[in-house]
Request: fold
Amino acid sequence: ADLVRALDGSLDIPARLAEREAAYPRRRGLTAPPPRVTVAAADSRLATVIEVRAQDAPGLLHRIGRALEGAAVRVRSAHVSTLGANAVDTLYVTRPDGSLLPPEEAVDLARTLETALG
Reply:
């Protein structure tokens, strides 16, 4: 039912994720390391490779997706992994026309993602 509502636009996804995050158990005294986003420009001839490492949490992938949407990039491929409490997501992105992101745009995108996840 939620999937249908999400697809038809009648579900407030950010509010729903906030509810889930509020109910998520927290470990006392432990501070999560800040998210780390790196650019691996030479790893692909077809796309700019962005690697995101962050503590896994409800809505993490949604925040990444919203930041990518706001940056107007095209995701050619996404490899999403959870290793224990950590998420390691590798994103292959291009400009809307399919070209690689210039280095300065890739760095800006990495900063945008870190801000969205921070």
